[in-house]
Structure formats: structure tokens, C-alpha cells
């Protein structure tokens, strides 16, 4: 019997990641992915889909709040800010992708930014921490995609 389950091993790898493992190449690619996602997301805030989810999400409130991209005066609880900003990114469908088909940054970046904004002022995270969180999210998504039988069959379905 293996000493660890796949889930335990997966969690150990993810938990063990740290900023020292971010090479210059990873940092530069991450910055490019983030900039691309922010650009696509800002453009996406003008779509009907984004307007609808933003209007729906206005019913939620919390002591914590995060910004809707492109609207500094519009804040929502972090969960809903991530949702609205994620819809903005995906509504344009120009965000980054890899094979098998997935859009990693559009799912990860809105959540990372919404959570980072929700931290108390005295506990704000650094830019390097944000890059690490972004890369951990990308790594999690990539590994889950790798484990998925359905994802491996995507090319056959198209």
C-alpha cells in the first residue's frame, strides 16, 4: 500500500511551494499572464454577461470587500468580486489557454486579487506573495486537469 494517497501527495507538493522556487522566467511569464488577464478582464466588464452578474451580486454584502475591475467605487464581498471579475475575463474568451483546453489565469487571478484586497491593511501581501499564490493556483489547476480523464478526451470531442 502506498504511504500516501494521491490527494495527500498532491496537497504536500502544493503546500511545499514557496517564493524561492519562482525562477526569473516563471516570474516574467506570470507577469505577462497577469497583464493579459487584467486587460481582457477590463474589456470584459463592458459585456452584457458581466453586467448581469454584477447586478445579481449587488445583493450580497460583507465586512470584507474587493473591487470590481474598472470600477473603483464598486466593491463586493471577495467571493462575488472574484465571480464578477472572472466572468468579465471569460466573457471575452481571449484569455490565455493551454492544451487540453483550459483558461488558467481567468479562473485563478480574480480569486487571488479579491482575496489579497480583503487582507487587513497591516497584513497586506507582497507582490512576490501574489505571484506565488497565482502560480500555486495555476499549478493546482494544471495538476487537476492532468488527473482528469475527461480533460484528456477533450481533443477527441472536437
Brief account:
The chain is mainly alpha-helical and 158 residues long.
Helix content: 55-70%
Dominant shape: globular
Poorly predicted spans: none
**What integer is the average pLDDT?**
87
Quaternary structure type: single chain
Percent of sequence in beta strands: 5-15%
Structure class: mainly alpha
* Strand order, sheet with most strands: 1-2
Overview of this protein structure:
- Helix 3 (48-57) runs antiparallel to helix 4 and helix 4 (78-92) packs antiparallel against helix 5.
- The chain contains 8 helices and 2 strands, in the order αααββααααα.
- It has one domain (22-146): 2-methylcitrate dehydratase PrpD, CATH 1.10.4100.10.
- It is mainly α and 158 residues long.
- A two-stranded antiparallel ribbon has the order 1-2.
- A hairpin with a 2-residue loop joins strand 1 (66-68) and strand 2 (71-76).
- The relative contact order is 0.15.
- This is IRG1 decarboxylase.
- Residues 8-151 form the MmgE/PrpD N-terminal domain.
- Pfam families: MmgE_PrpD_N.
- GO terms for molecular function: aconitate decarboxylase activity.
- Belongs to the PrpD family.
List keywords for this structure.
158 residues; 6% strand; 8 helices; 2-methylcitrate dehydratase PrpD; 63% helix; globular; single chain; mainly alpha
Amino acid at each position: 500500500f502506498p504511504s500516501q494517497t494521491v490527494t495527500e501527495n498532491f496537497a504536500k507538493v502544493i503546500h511545499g511551494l514557496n517564493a524561492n522556487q519562482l525562477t526569473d522566467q516563471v516570474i516574467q511569464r506570470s507577469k505577462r499572464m497577469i497583464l493579459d488577464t487584467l486587460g481582457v478582464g477590463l474589456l470584459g466588464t463592458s459585456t452584457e454577461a458581466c453586467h448581469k452578474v454584477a447586478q445579481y451580486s449587488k445583493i450580497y454584502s460583507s465586512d470584507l470587500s474587493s473591487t470590481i475591475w474598472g470600477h473603483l467605487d464598486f466593491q463586493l464581498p471577495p467571493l462575488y468580486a472574484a465571480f464578477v471579475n472572472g466572468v468579465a475575463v471569460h466573457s471575452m474568451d481571449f484569455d490565455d489557454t493551454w492544451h487540453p483546453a483550459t483558461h488558467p489565469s481567468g479562473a485563478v487571478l480574480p480569486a487571488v486579487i479579491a482575496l489579497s484586497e480583503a487582507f487587513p491593511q497591516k497584513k497586506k501581501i507582497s507582490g512576490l506573495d501574489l505571484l506565488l499564490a497565482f502560480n500555486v493556483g495555476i499549478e493546482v489547476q494544471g495538476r487537476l486537469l492532468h488527473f482528469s480523464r475527461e480533460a484528456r478526451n477533450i481533443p477527441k470531442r472536437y
